[in-house]
């Protein structure tokens, strides 16, 4: 069963040094997951100031600056893991360094057939 | 001789710096800051070299070329941290050694369009688009923009910095939109130009009715767009701005008080701007592909051709509003249409429409809706209703001359 | 340049449209992913299970706190995502505009930060 772990954290919650360490620790976690065949993908996102939203209103496309919803903490990155169940997903979520400062939302992935390449075969950094 | 060359550099800066910048941004792979730095270095070299040597025959090409090599130097230095910069630098350098390379300033008009479309990209914050356009396309300083928008230089500077950062990190492309996207993207550009014009024509807040510099800048932008991309709505917007601008001298008194269209001394209207505006309206209408700006220009043209408010062809104005509301069903257009109907059929007909609009709720905080209602009540001798509506309008307006005008009308009612 | 498209859907609007419309929308999205793959623009994509199954995980003072529910209480909820590899933001906007869920929601486009040293999944 695949899960998406969405990392929400205040963008100023970490110092530059803490962020560097966070990337290092997260990368190590990714490698550990990969060794156990549980890793699908992971990546940080650029700050929310770079976000653009697209909507359709009254049949017209509307492009706006900014994220879909203004929240106290912002989506800063994600992991996608392949694990036995929701409990294991939550256990991994709690090992994500950013869980100490922010919140990780665990969402089950709805597996549908016929996608171009199976998620398993796709690397996060290629 | 030396001061002649210096004067020539200043003259070239005023005439060409925006074009040079637009091309350098493309050559720098869309990096605004790098291009700006390269342009300033190029002008600094001109100040140094032109007095010693001959002023080049094509100063623009000279400056772009000088700026390009400055940019290549900077990119090579930064390539240690960002390999992609090194690639752009080497590609640029290879191009300049290619004998088949076209003249460096060829396609410069396309670069100006690229710059306009990038500054007015819908993914940038709405308030940043106008500031960025005035800064990069028109060459206004941050201080000038802040003054024009009654804002502080740090606020404007921050908007511009954020917008440039987003262009870079979200990779907003430096290109003219595809045919399919053009109507939508041109709509955003025209909206920015019209916003700049209106900010100059009737300030949304503050002590002065008009800030002519901004309107002048908007008209210059409109002319530039028309030269680059003569689409019907580009022509229509330029016509609209010119006809509105023609009334500048008549729309306020020496004391800065507002004069309504019906009370303006029409001999003060700028006939040259009207004549140009009328020609442009006709040109836009002939295309049969016009939109809301052209129709608004046509409405302004009917006013411009009338000798007085009483002699205005209100029938035609109402018909044009009917056409306009089919394209754009905004409550403000409905309000203007109601006022036109009041002029054609009498205040009672207009009041009925305005009351229905106010009951709808969209305009209940819009000062001009209450001002229009007050005026029609006044004309219908409904003094008490007129007073209430003026008071509501006064409470809602943020603009000093408008407040003075409404207070004067309110006082007149009490006499 | 890689972008993540976060698809926010109005789950109730899709429920009103019924399972047939939902299936058709998913088919449409799958077709889109294949078109992207042909242009080498596809990295990955997937819908998510309805947000009712979401849980929130925090670690405070070394202790794990798990709570129920999605992170943001909004009418439109994160219903799926794409990661695409395109030239620039305009191309990302063009892909987002073709996402069938846009009819009842919004797509947020976020540039992905590429950091070296991650394993291949």
Q: In CATH terms, what is the fold-level topology of chain C?
A: Alpha-Beta Plaits
Number of strands of chain B: 0
- Spell out the helices and strands of chain C N to C: EHHEEEEHE
Runs of chain B in which pLDDT lies below 50 for 5 or more consecutive residues are none
- Strand percentage of chain C lies at 35-45%
Largest sheet of chain B: none
The mean pLDDT of chain C is: 91
Distance between the termini of chain C: 19 Å
Mean pLDDT of chain B: 90
* Strand adjacency order, main sheet of chain C: 2-5-1-6
CATH superfamily of chain C: Dimeric alpha+beta barrel
Q: Radius of gyration of chain B, rounded?
A: 25 Å
Approximately how much beta-strand content do the residues of chain B carry? under 5%
Structural class of chain B: mainly alpha
Q: What is the share of helical residues of chain B?
A: over 70%
Pairing-aware structural class of the strands and helices of chain C?
Answer: alpha+beta
The number of E-state strands of chain C comes to 6
Q: What's the tally of helices of chain C? A: 3
The pair of chains with the biggest contact is: A-C, 67 and 62 residues
Distance between the termini of chain B: 71 Å
Helix content range of the residues of chain C, please? 25-40%
Report on the architecture of this protein.
- The complex is a heterotrimer of chains A (126), B (415) and C (121).
- With 126 residues, chain A is an alpha+beta fold.
- Chain A is 22% helix and 33% strand.
- Chain A has 2 helices and 6 strands.
- Chain A has helices at residues 16-35, 86-93, and strands at residues 2-9, 39-44, 52-57, 60-65, 74-82, 103-108.
- Chain A has a 4-stranded antiparallel sheet, covered by helices on one side. Chain A has a two-stranded antiparallel ribbon with strand order 3-4.
- In chain A, strand 3 and strand 4 (60-65) form a beta hairpin.
- Chain A is globular.
- Chain A starts with a strand and ends in an 18-residue tail after the last strand.
- By secondary structure, chain B is mainly alpha-helical.
- Chain B has helices at residues 2-27, 32-49, 59-78, 83-97, 108-119, 126-136, 142-148, 153-169, 182-201, 212-228, 232-245, 271-286, 292-305, 314-327, 331-345, 347-360, 367-379, 383-396, 400-414.
- The model of chain B has no long low-confidence stretch (mean pLDDT 90).
- Chain C is α+β, with helices and mostly antiparallel strands and 121 residues long.
- The mean pLDDT of chain C is 91.
- Chain B binds chain C through residues 121, 123, 169-173, 175, 177, 181, and chain C through 1, 87-90, 93, 109, 111.
- Strand 6 (103-108) of chain A pairs antiparallel with strand 3 of chain C.
């Amino acid at each position: 069963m695949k899960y998406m772990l969405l990392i929400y954290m205040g963008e100023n919650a970490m110092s530059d040094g803490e962020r560097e360490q966070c990337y290092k620790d997260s990368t190590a976690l990714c490698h550990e997951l990969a060794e156990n065949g549980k890793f699908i993908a992971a990546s940080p996102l650029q700050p929310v100031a770079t976000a653009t939203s697209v909507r359709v209103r009254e049949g017209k496309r509307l492009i706006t600056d900014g994220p879909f919803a203004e929240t106290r903490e912002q989506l800063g990155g994600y992991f996608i893991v392949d694990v036995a169940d929701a409990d294991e997903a939550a256990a991994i979520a709690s090992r994500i360094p950013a869980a100490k400062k922010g919140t990780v939302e665990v969402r089950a992935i709805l597996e549908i057939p016929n996608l171009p390449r199976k998620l398993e075969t796709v690397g996060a950094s290629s | 001789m030396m001061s002649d060359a210096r004067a020539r550099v200043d003259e070239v800066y005023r005439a060409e710096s925006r074009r040079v910048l637009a091309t350098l941004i493309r050559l720098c792979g869309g990096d605004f800051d790098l291009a700006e730095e390269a342009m300033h270095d190029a002008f600094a070299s001109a100040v140094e070299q032109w007095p010693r040597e001959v002023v080049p025959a094509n100063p623009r090409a000279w400056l772009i070329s000088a700026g390009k090599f400055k940019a290549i130097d900077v990119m090579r230095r930064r390539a240690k941290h960002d390999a992609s910069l090194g690639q752009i630098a080497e590609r640029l350098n290879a191009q300049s050694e290619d004998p088949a390379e076209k003249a460096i300033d060829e396609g410069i008009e396309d670069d100006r369009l690229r710059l306009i479309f990038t500054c007015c990209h819908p993914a940038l914050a709405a308030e940043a688009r106008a500031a960025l356009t005035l800064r990069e396309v028109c060459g206004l300083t941050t201080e000038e923009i802040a003054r024009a928008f009654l804002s502080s230089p740090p606020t404007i500077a921050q908007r511009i910095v954020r917008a440039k950062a987003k262009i870079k990190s979200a990779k907003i492309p430096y290109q003219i939109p595809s045919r399919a996207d053009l109507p939508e993207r041109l709509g955003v550009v025209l909206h920015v130009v019209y916003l700049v014009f209106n900010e100059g024509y009737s300030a949304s807040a503050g002590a002065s009715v008009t800030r002519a510099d901004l309107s002048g800048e908007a008209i210059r932008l409109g002319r530039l767009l028309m030269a680059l991309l003569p689409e019907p709505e580009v022509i229509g917007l330029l016509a609209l701005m010119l006809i509105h601008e023609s009334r500048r001298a008549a729309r306020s008194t020496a004391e800065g008080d507002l004069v309504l269209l019906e009370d303006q001394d029409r001999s003060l209207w700028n006939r040259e701007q009207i004549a140009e505006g009328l020609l442009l309206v006709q040109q836009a209408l002939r295309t049969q592909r016009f939109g809301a700006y052209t129709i608004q220009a046509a409405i302004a043209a009917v006013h411009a051709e009338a000798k007085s408010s009483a002699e205005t062809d209100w029938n035609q104005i109402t018909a044009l509003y009917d056409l306009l509301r089919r394209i754009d069903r905004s409550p403000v257009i409905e309000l203007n249409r109601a006022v036109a109907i009041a002029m054609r059929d009498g205040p009672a007909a207009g009041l009925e429409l305005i009351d229905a609009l106010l009951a709808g709720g969209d305009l209940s905080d819009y000062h001009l809706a209450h001002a229009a209602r007050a005026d029609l009540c006044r004309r219908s001798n409904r003094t008490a209703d007129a007073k209430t509506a003026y008071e509501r309008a006064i409470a809602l307006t943020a603009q000093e001359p408008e407040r003075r005008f409404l207070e004067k009308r309110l006082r007149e009612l009490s006499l | 340049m890689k972008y993540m498209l976060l698809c926010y859907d109005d789950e109730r609007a899709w429920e009103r449209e019924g399972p047939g419309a939902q299936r058709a929308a998913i088919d449409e999205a799958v077709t889109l992913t294949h078109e992207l793959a042909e242009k080498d623009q596809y990295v990955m994509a997937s819908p998510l299970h309805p947000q009712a199954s979401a849980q929130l995980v925090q670690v405070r003072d070394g202790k794990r706190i798990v709570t129920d529910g999605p992170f943001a209480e909004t009418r439109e909820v994160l219903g799926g995502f794409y990661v695409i590899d395109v030239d620039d933001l305009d191309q990302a906007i063009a892909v987002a505009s073709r996402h069938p869920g846009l009819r009842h929601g919004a797509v947020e486009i976020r540039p992905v930060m590429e950091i070296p040293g991650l394993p291949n999944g």
